[in-house]
Design brief:
mainly alpha, 19 helices, binds tryptophan
Length: about 475
């Protein structure tokens, strides 16, 4: 029955178009900017291993669930959840999941856009040869000059939000879908070039050991939560972005194969970025845990010393901006689709409203790197002692809202939705792979998310010590 439902927003032209769009959403700053710096902050190998496990056990099954719900509902996540809840005789409160996703999307895009602004400004900095011959110190000074200047950050943030609004206004299927087809392979090639440079001129072995030799002493409960949160973040899961993209997916396209393909490409980009960056970090005596500026303080050293560095550097940041662009549009698409469906707006006005709200929230992040860099709202809690408003926004969204959203998506898809409906929508029969998926989403995913939460809050340690005292 649901296969007759059609989206008022149109459909992808093919399964390939969906793969490109979903990869465009998944691959972004999360892979190239965030993955290396949080890996650095959380000690390397063990963190990477936990992250990879989360992708396999939590990420891929949840991606399938999100695409499935989207395609069955064929509307914005809010209306999809409302429709499916009614159809499956579940509570109408499930629509709140859609609302939570819209809010998470605004919050994430608000800081995502500021960081994408850094990348935009680096297109011009690398292109002009500013970094040629510079040492790590010089590169670092250039970065702190940028982030220390709220007006410049604001200007780049504004430009990036305008770029995002323009594409969203035209509909995600026009324009960017075609660009991603060319730019994604180019990004791969450029990452290989960077890894090649790191191989020749960096501390390659030390970099690889840092990334791939797990030392479990180095990871904390909070680190495990960050690794899990990042699995959601990097695959664009838990807030409806992949759900809304799924709502434009043609009937009959394989959801399982598509999700696995997108996840593999996404993981490959992150690992390549790590392999390019850490050898440079160690070769220049830099600190792996130096935070959100990591790629902006390491890669320019390489561009400043390699042949045609200004050209490659500019190309690299252009591709990074495109990767961020194709991700940012998926962050407000759920809100825009809802405004069009329920408020009768055109895509143009809907994008402007969503964009302006996001832009305003983005001011918190702009100020976090300069005027408000000493504002530590939650310094009472040890893990947030040094957290700026930007750090808190990132923590709240990536490590709390997305996993919670994912947990609820898992519960709905495998427990509220009837087996018949999910068999029908996934279209992979009900033997072999289907039971594996259902088992993962019914038991493993929710339990894993809950355990990681309880461990991070410290409840599990508290229970263990209480039990020790008893026996
Ligand atoms: N996945 C993107 C990245 O890694 C960011 C992103 C796009 C996202 N859409 C999302 C994150 C939805 C969470 C939810 O850069």
């Amino acid at each position: 029955m649901s296969s007759e439902r059609v989206s008022i927003h149109g459909q992808w032209s093919s399964r390939l178009a969906f793969v490109l769009a979903a990869t465009g959403s998944a691959v972004g700053l999360g892979n190239i900017w965030k993955f290396p710096y949080i890996t650095g902050e959380n000690g390397g190998g063990a963190f990477v291993l936990v992250y990879l496990a989360c992708i396999a056990v939590i990420g891929i099954p949840i991606m399938m669930a999100e695409v499935m719900l989207g395609r069955r509902g064929r509307q914005s996540p809010i209306n999809t959840m409302r429709t499916l809840a009614a159809e499956e005789h579940a509570s109408k409160h499930w629509q709140w999941l859609g609302w939570a996703g819209v809010i998470a999307g605004f919050l994430i895009l608000s800081y995502y856009s500021v960081i994408a602004g850094w990348a935009l400004s680096y297109v011009f900095r690398t292109g002009s040869g500013l970094f040629t011959g510079l040492t790590a110190d010089g590169v670092q000074t250039i970065f702190t000059n940028l982030t220390g200047d709220p007006e410049r950050l604001l200007a780049w943030h504004t430009l990036f939000m305008v770029m995002t609004m323009i594409v969203v206004a035209q509909g995600v299927r026009n324009g960017l879908e075609k660009a991603v087809k060319w730019l994604m392979p180019m990004l791969f090639v450029l990452l290989f070039i960077m890894v090649g440079y790191a191989w020749n001129s960096g501390s390659f072995e030390q970099g690889l050991n840092f990334l791939f030799q797990p030392d479990f002493e180095k990871i904390t409960a909070n680190g495990i939560l960050i690794a899990m949160g990042h699995a959601f973040f990097t695959l664009s899961l838990g807030m409806g972005a992949i759900m809304v993209y799924g709502s434009y997916l043609p009937a009959g396209a394989s959801i399982a194969r598509t999700s696995i393909l997108v996840s593999l490409m996404d993981t490959a980009v992150a690992l390549l970025a790590g392999m390019a960056i850490f050898p440079i970090v160690f070769a220049n005596g830099l600190e792996p845990g130096s935070g959100p500026g990591l790629i902006f303080q390491t890669l320019p050293i390489a561009f400043g010393h390699m042949q045609y560095g200004a050209f490659f550097g500019m190309l690299f940041f252009v591709l990074l901006v495109f990767a961020a662009w194709s991700s940012s549009i998926s962050l407000i698409e759920p809100a825009v689709a809802w405004l069009v469906e329920n408020r009768g707006m055109t895509r143009g006005s809907a994008s402007i409203i969503a964009g302006v709200v996001t832009w305003l929230v983005g001011l918190l992040t702009v100020l976090s790197f300069n005027l408000w860099s000493e504002v530590k709202l939650l310094s009472y809690f040890a893990i947030f002692r040094d957290s700026t408003p930007f750090d808190l926004l990132d923590y709240l969204t990536a490590n709390i809202m997305l996993p919670l959203g994912g947990l609820l998506i898992a519960i709905f898809a495998a427990r509220k939705m009837s087996r018949a409906s999910s068999v029908d929508e996934l279209g992979m029969g009900d033997r072999f792979f289907y039971p594996v998926w259902r088992f993962l989403v019914r038991y493993i995913t929710p339990i894993a998310v809950i355990i990681v939460f309880l461990k991070a809050i410290g409840i599990i340690d508290w229970l263990v010590s209480w039990y020790d005292r008893l026996v």
